[in-house]
Amino acid sequence: MDQQKRATIADVAKLAGVSITTVSRVMNKNYPVKEATRKKVEKAIEELEFKPNLLARGLIHNKTQTIGILTPSIENLFFSEVVKGIDSVIKNKGYTTFLCNTEGDPEQEKLMIDNMKDRSVDGIIAINPRTKNIKSGYYEGISKQIPLVIINGYNRGIHCNYVLNDGEVGTYEALKYLYELGHRDIVFLRGRHSYSYDVKEDIYRKFCEEFKLEFDEDNILIIEDGNGLEAVEQSKVVVEKIIRENDKVSCLFACNDWMAVGALKAAKALSISVPEEFSIIGFDNTIISQITEPSLTTVDQNMSGLGQISGNRICEIIKDRDKENKKIIIETRLIHRNSVAGRL
Amino acid sequence: MDQQKRATIADVAKLAGVSITTVSRVMNKNYPVKEATRKKVEKAIEELEFKPNLLARGLIHNKTQTIGILTPSIENLFFSEVVKGIDSVIKNKGYTTFLCNTEGDPEQEKLMIDNMKDRSVDGIIAINPRTKNIKSGYYEGISKQIPLVIINGYNRGIHCNYVLNDGEVGTYEALKYLYELGHRDIVFLRGRHSYSYDVKEDIYRKFCEEFKLEFDEDNILIIEDGNGLEAVEQSKVVVEKIIRENDKVSCLFACNDWMAVGALKAAKALSISVPEEFSIIGFDNTIISQITEPSLTTVDQNMSGLGQISGNRICEIIKDRDKENKKIIIETRLIHRNSVAGRL
DNA sequence: TTGTATGCGTTATCAT
DNA sequence: ATGATAACGCATACAA
């Protein structure tokens, strides 16, 4: 194999007949260099195809132009769109991303963060981190060591930089929409572990109170795995069950589109037509909401925007590490498609 | 902010009252150290929470325990599952991944590879790279500089390490399945730029010859963007058109599931029932094939396996850089679901 | 304007 | 068994 070693700054210096320092100056354009020597150096650089070793540079500045991104699962549509949003903005600022999967395991999460610190990333963005690690103060501690932005996670009293979609308003609007269409018995479907589910359930409960809906604890359905095909399967099971057992329920609010798909399949299995006989509303506005039949009415939370804002935010914090913490909230928007209709 | 600097090996040495070298030896366990001193050092390490700086280490060994992954688009289901497969195997070998999006742009692709080289990744896995860059010999050149594995890309005469799914066999089996069900006029739907589409079209043409099907160039449909929601839209348009114009066609082979969804929507729009009146077969077996109604008969190419094998392969090459190039082919499998039926 | 020397945090070589 | 010192490739304070 060719294995020809990469040229170093010393090689360039020798070829150009100048000192290492001069080459460095030409590279970084941070000190004046005589035009003639600059030409010489540039020629040498080109000839040797010299490109600086970013490791060496990082060692000196303790900066790597790298942002670590933590995600529970890259194969999940929600997260990949957020990642794309992040990528699109930080790329322009010369950063690249270091992506890690946690599989939703709190311990993995910590391990991965350690790994990133070892690799001297300049900042970390944690997408949907486990509530447990936020509450315990773990992330607050990390936040003091290294620039950190948390997406879709939050806890009062824990000081970090947060970027959140407004799950509260989104949920409220969706529920109100159903209410205005005449629905009174709304099933609520959530996954077990996530801050975002907690928020939504909270709103659901308050909503029932506010609108004096007959509240039934059994109308709150919980599945284990929140994102992906398993969520579809699990949701199908629990939704089928409740429709069979409670003939009053006329609609369902799902905490994400996967669950909504499961509900769709449950209705299909029971030969109940959506939306004519049963309405379903999803959350996230992932691509699958446009693929299903009928297409899903859902709450858009601007995932790409979520990523972009987080990307910008992390860059700000990196630049000025003493910036005070902020909680940025992104608006949601109800997307009307074909899975919701008025109550018969 | 706390900003307390990370402890270095020197801090540990001082605290333990030994030399830097000894600490290094304790860390790496590669030289004998007296039990007593080892204890001392370990205690100091713990106390200072010392973790070695991977950048410094990388600078010496010119290794970073990092694998760069190039993907046209992380938000695409196909790629994210492959990435997950890669991740799952290399993680155990102490590597982490460096992920880059190319947006399918050949120039971006080169830029990203440069970037990875600058960051001294130990190896690169390129998923669905642009044919152009393979043909031009660009990747062959890279392959000589750094361990490289190409997933789902190939060109005869270009020497690289390839991992491919057997698109030929998969396509052939799908077509034969349709044929055996009585279909004779099969529409072929592909995207414009990708090796995998070329392979499939090639098989399609040969298949028509072999089975003496009346060949019609118009039955080959081409859309621009191959992956994602755009593909759905574009496919819908062209499929609607051909169904309207050619009443002989009774089924369609799509080069991926997105396109198949588009075809599904086209049929729906024309009130043609699938599979009773029109059969559709997809490719990839992404999760969407289980979400659509009807669910999609499709060709599974074991995306996770594709990733795992590539992960193992890159590790092999890294360990022994003089290993000869290999072309590894993964089997595909037809998944029977509900979008295909016999010809009326 | 340019060059010398030192340091970033580690590991490897050579002594002792 | 342990330690001093020279690399790794680059940037910069200081000198000239």
UniProtKB/TrEMBL annotation, chains A, B:
Q: Which UniProt keywords apply?
A: DNA-binding, Repressor, Transcription, Transcription regulation
Question: Keyword DNA-binding on this protein?
Answer: yes
Segments forming domain HTH lacI-type: 7-61
| Family matches, as SMART domains | HTH_LACI (SM00354)
Which Pfam families does the record cross-reference, listed alphabetically? LacI, Peripla_BP_3
Single GO MF annotation: transcription cis-regulatory region binding
Instruction: Please give the InterPro entries that the UniProt record associates with this protein.
Output: HTH_LacI, LacI/GalR-like_sensor, Lambda_DNA-bd_dom_sf, Peripla_BP_I
PANTHER family cross-referenced by the UniProt entry: HTH-TYPE TRANSCRIPTIONAL REPRESSOR PURR-RELATED, LACI-RELATED TRANSCRIPTIONAL REPRESSOR
- Give the protein name, as stated in the record: LacI family DNA-binding transcriptional regulator
Give the source species: Vallitalea guaymasensis
